[in-house]
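S.,

As promised, the S-adenosylmethionine run. Input:
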Amino acid sequence: MKAEHSMFDSMPKHHWVYQTARGLQVCGDSREILGYIRENSVDLVITSPPFALLRQKSYGNELQSDYVNWLSDFGVEVFRILKPSGSFILDLGGAYEKGKPVRSLYNFRVLIHFCDELGFKLAEDFYWFNPAKLPSPIEWVNKRKVRAKDAINTVWWFSKSDSPKADITKVLKPYSKRMKTLLKNPESFYYPKLRPSGHDIGINFGKNENGGAVPPNLLAIPNTDSNSHYLRTCKLIKRRSHPARFPEELPGFFVRFLTDAEDIVVDIFSGSNSTGLICEELDRRWFSIDNSLEYAALSAIRFMEGWGLERIKSCVEQMEAGEFLNLTKIPEYQKKFHYIEVTK
Ligand SMILES: C[S@@+](CC[C@H](N)C(=O)[O-])C[C@H]1O[C@@H](n2cnc3c(N)ncnc32)[C@H](O)[C@@H]1O
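Predicted complex:
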């Protein structure tokens, strides 16, 4: 397979930070960078925008609507670059209005604006449940004890058409014990009967062995990573790791569900590039954009497992000084991502 980036050839090289066998990390404002990508060329955009940066503004309707307008500029470009079969996954954390135990509606405003004004369809609403989330906000949950802890992010699955590419059989979950028993012996387990819902739980239901259970739109994924190669290495080289990472399983679920090998996945607020790493592992081509050179350069650490610390440090420093790093030329990288051998 070739490390190809022809779709980005028009992009000025000074934005390029590093390249792997499958992807390219650039640094710049996504509103500008997306302009270099051809229309109808991308299979999936998956991202988590920096709501926290705007938190000081996150009160009152007018300022909330500023946020919607700000994000809308990115949304317009995402719509343009997506293939008609493409999807856009947008992870948005919930928020309270400043100083009040009243929820902000910003994530729902984004949803409605993107569908009503930008032309997206809501293919499905997903909810990411982080069971490990600490109770917050402290004032309403811990001190006054008047609200439950906020442990759910809304994850909007937007599409450009009514039928975006999707295959739920790629993300089936292991069957429950009860389901396994039913599948083994449907006759004795369930005599054909109609449920109050009208679902016919009959013999045929038991014959439908699909290799796993269809997952719900509630994704329970703990965000507990404290010992990954990326985090350990940042610590060892005395650099601050990205403070708002999502767990790789989150992009991983949608990358498996909505794309095939070789498809193109873009993250427009890539941070520590969790999306790029999972795409590399799943054989998708990826393209990640962040406007912080520091975050973009540090994210290369994700592809440097097994390297010496000094080597990692000097590569990060080179990228931060504006030098482009082509990892595919580096033997340590070739060892880890073995398929690079095929590219020669
Ligand atoms: C919530 S973080 C994303 C974290 C990422 N999902 C991860 O797992 O590491 C949002 C990122 O958006 C970047 N960002 C903010 N404004 C941007 C812009 N206009 N263009 C590109 N990136 C931007 C920030 O530097 C930050 O790293």
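Residues 8 and 170 are 29 Å apart (CA to CA). The two ends are 8 Å apart (CA to CA).

- D.
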